[in-house]
């Protein structure tokens, strides 16, 4: 591992500079320069969430602290429109009223913060992590579990905290899973009090239709879950919040290598969890999962060693070390008849932010679309990788020196018939030119590079998760 660069002062935090620097303006623009061509059969919206702080807060800044901002490009009949908006959360409104920061970040004591999420962490729920589409709305979610905030998919206006007609008590994690075949949404919530996790389902009608307590040995920090046609898979991974630090008002996490990774298989509408044990690791993101014979197969991006000890012990070095991510495609097989677990790597490239064709989540996939992590000391994606899980073959597009991509979901073309019959869409930010574009790739020929590039009116800061919403999904939920 290369040495970790340490910034000399708080204001040199690299996550506030260059390609990460927040943008102040909310822009709507349809007059955009196109290089190449925007395919006419690409119709829908690419949305990407990420941290973008509005006001500087006292103390140290962590990349995850920024206020949520969604950047979106709406493609229609060969034309593109760009728009970016802050997610107007309850905390964002409070700070806007006062014209200054009221919350500290995760690296500071939250004791004086006005309010937090229902975990009692006292941290600002910024909804800055993922965006998903369910029942005509985009839901913006937060990595530590928060209120999902509903946004209009075209105007990006914040509709408000989504409580599913008053039926959602508690919070929702960052990566709820939509089954497009049934219209259901699957989620979990976790916190510092026993039983530490709750699993639930939102019905196609938009209300909570099932909740089950999931008992864990202690508080955990799960990030994602998997879904198959009949089951959900929940995770109890040995990355723990340090409870002594928590009592002292500090947020600190540690990896306990002596504990197993545990995967809990629960029927979609069940309450009995069957646990499968595997080698210790951490998993941010699931690629996809499905049933095959007696087995559940689950592909993930697995982090073998989530605790990178910084060489210099400063808070900033600790954050930079924590954000160093070494993840590889990895497959688990859980045998529901025998209880056996098989696990092993699929590939050795450092890949994260995976996605598959959203129409087949929870059913077998062949292709996944992944971002390659650069070896820089901050988190950056230097290539887009299509991985063929049936052959292990990879198709790679490198963005080029000083150019960084963002999560690139599959965007089916109009009338699409399969997993590569469409496009991949990604923001690409050029650190030398200090500007961004949205790039469109043919999913069947990723290595050929973008078929079209749309130059954007402002830089899109490097951020977190993205989604694609098809035109037919927008049309089925008229606003
Ligand atoms: Fe995530």
TrEMBL record:
EC number assigned by the record: 1.13.11.-
UniProt enzyme class: oxidoreductase
Cofactors demanded by this protein: Fe(2+)
Pfam assignment, any one: RPE65
Record-level Gene Ontology MF annotations: dioxygenase activity
InterPro entries: Carotenoid_Oase
Keywords annotated in UniProt: Dioxygenase, Iron, Metal-binding, Oxidoreductase
Family that this chain belongs to: Belongs to the carotenoid oxygenase family.
Cofactor note: Binds 1 Fe(2+) ion per subunit.
Organism (species): Kibdelosporangium banguiense
Source organism phylogeny: Bacteria, Bacillati, Actinomycetota, Actinomycetes, Pseudonocardiales
Superkingdom of origin: Bacteria
Protein name per its UniProtKB record: Dioxygenase
